[in-house]
Amino acid sequence: MAKLNIKKMNKNFRGQLITYAMVIIAFVVMQILIASGSVSYLLQGLMVPLCIYSIVAVGLNLCVGYLGELSLGHAGFMCVGAFSSAFFTKCMLNTGMNETVRFLLALVIGTLTAALFGYLIGIPVLRLRGDYLAIVTLAFGEIIKNVINVLYIGRDSRGFHFSMKDATALGLEEDGEVIVNGAKGIMRIPSQSTFLIGVILLLIALFICFQLVNSRSGRAIMAIRDNRIAAESVGINITGYKLLAFTISAAIAGAGGVLYAHNLATLTAQPANFGYNMSIMILVFVVLGGMGSFRGSVIAAVLLTMIPEILRGLADYRMLIYSIILIAMMLFNWSPKFVAFRQAQMEKLFGKKKKEAV
Amino acid sequence: MSFLSYLINGLSLGSIYAIIALGYTMVYGIAKMLNFAHGDVIMIGCYVVFTMTNSFHLDPLASLGIAIVFCTVLGVCIEKIAYRPLRGANALAVLITAIGVSYFLQNLALIVFGSDTKSFTSIIEAEPLVLAGGKLKIPVITIVTVLSCVVIMAALMLFINKSKAGQAMLAVSEDRDAAQLMGVNVNNTISLTFAIGSGLAAIAGVLLCSAYPTLSPYTGAMPGIKAFTAAVFGGIGSIPGAFIGGILLGVIEIMGRAYISSQLSDAIVFAVLIIVLLVKPTGILGRPIQEKV
Predict the structure, then answer these.
(1) Could you tell me which chain A residue has the CA closest to the CA of B263?
(2) Are B86 and A140 inside 8 Å of each other by CB?
(3) Residue A243 is part of a domain; what is its CATH number?
(4) What range does the domain containing A303 cover?
(5) Is A93 part of a structural domain of the chain?
(6) Would residue A100 count as lying in a domain?
């Protein structure tokens, strides 16, 4: 029988195992802490959002870190995933369907709808480059949020009714029910997202991303990032691979959205949860955690979501301190002077120079 | 007549966007970075004017002057502390730092001025201009807004094309290293760019709050994003582009709100932007991106 020898393992594979182990250990530790009652109620409520942000950050990292395209519209994909899955759950609410099956189906539907949007938006958007691509993804995200805010869908014995005006324009019969109520969103969604489901989804998202980037397709995607023209000249299908990565990235964001929708009873598309601010927040996790490092994305998402909660005692000052920490971390991580300083310190400490790459 | 008054409203809003977009586009052209905190400098400028007129009972114009000076200093400080150490680092890192600065300014304003919305008194109190026998009323602030936008544009074009400092800006935006070799002080030029952009932000902020008189710590965020969109629309890095982009965006937004749907006006603006960028990927006046193999 082949022994599991960690040292002989492929370096990539070891990195993956460490990441999975980290997530599982964090989950177990948190569960023990929660069981022993030493975690505040507020912090417990933060567990599912932590998973959501980690999942979306991992998905966005695929787009920003590996594909090399800056997307400011991932909150839009989350929004699509959240609303399509919540709509499905609401429709199936009184049909006597098993709750677990219903949630799994909602998850599949939310993820696939987000993937479809990612694919359709990706076709025109991926023709653009750099900041222009970023602003167009931002625009798409805002359009999605804006359209959902004026969307009304109701159901009665005659079937579904759509309107873009208001709830009365639906013309529902007496037994009718408004499912999507414009700016008021979808109400009374059963909350089914748990910490366990969140962690399982996070592990699945990590698995998919690791498998992708370590495959032939993943190498093609990175080749496009590093040098588009060279990649094209060796016969890599640029548009195809770009679309592949963008679609998967959108699908993962959609899965995060499904979790989000089933975590709160009322789902609305506000600037605070699905606006560009959310996209930017996720981007902060990705950049701070390290572009191209899925493990870093998860760690950054967890830490940065926890900081404002830990600072809660400071009341009004917490977001101010958060922003100062953010700026300081960016300067420390990326400033050329700081980087040189850090390297000099490391040399002093360990007394040897790192080999220069030739 | 209603069409004409919508058009005038659109021109006025567009002028404000254009002034803000100038700040974005100049900083982008010269420092090659997206200054996400620009919208929040606008908000700070508004609060300075608000405090000066309400607490110290200063003349509106004098407080505008103070706000311009304050924002100019603020812009230069932000550049020195947060952006300069990152020169030469990854562009995304600079972007995130700018977002950090934006959070910082918003939360600072939240603590200093409170989260409640203040009602901003217009700096110009005058009877609206009545034309065509009372059918068309034009508020004086609208005229002032459009005029100041045109004056600022003209002055900026003159400054950049005729003065030595302006030529230095052009040189740095063209090729930073070559400009440095030719004896241009790159650091000072970038500081000057931030100073001009932030000073303009103060003017834009006061015009914005005079036309839409509510002031909160998040006042600057959405106009900031819209103006950034306008800058991209016109071709980022190009000053006439920012002007055209801003005016077009303002007119489209007001027309969309009036004739299509008031709730969908933002979606319409962004949809037009997407269409323009798909047809002309570098904006209306943008230069094509050159690729070397």
Answers:
(1) A150
(2) no
(3) 1.10.3470
(4) 44-350
(5) yes
(6) yes
User: What is the DSSP secondary-structure string of A39-94?
Assistant: S-HHHHHTHHHHHHHHHHHHHHHIIIIIS----S-HHHHHHHHHHHHHHHHHHTTT
Q: Is pLDDT of A146 > 50?
A: yes
More confidently predicted of B143 and B287? B143
Residues of B in contact with A142 (CB under 8 A): 266-267, 270
Which of residues 29 through 48 in chain B touch A, CB cutoff 8 A? 34, 36
What pLDDT score does A358 carry?
40
CA atoms within 13 A on the CB side of B212: 14
In percent, how much of chain B has pLDDT > 70?
97
Look at A131 and B34 and tell me if their CB atoms are within 8 Å: yes
B2-279: in CATH 1.10.287: no
pLDDT beyond 60 at A354 = no
Question: Is B86 within 8 Å of A330 when comparing Cβ atoms?
Answer: yes
Give the residue extent of every domain in chain B: 2-279
Is B183 an 8 Å CB contact of chain A?
Answer: no
Supply the pLDDT for residue A93: 83
Q: What is the pLDDT of residues B110-138, one digit of tens each?
A: 899 888 888 887 777 777 777 766 777 88
In angstroms, the CA B151 to CA B143 distance is 12
Residue A115 token pair = 């993937």
Given an 8 Å threshold on Cβ–Cβ distance, is B104 in contact with A323?
yes
pLDDT at position B94 over 60? yes
- Contact call for residues B186 and B176 (beta carbons, < 8 A): yes
Q: How far is A9 from chain B (nearest CA, A)?
A: 33
pLDDT band at residue A116 using 50, 70 and 90 as cut-offs:
very high
Decide if A38 is inside a domain.
no
Is residue A227 in some structural domain? yes
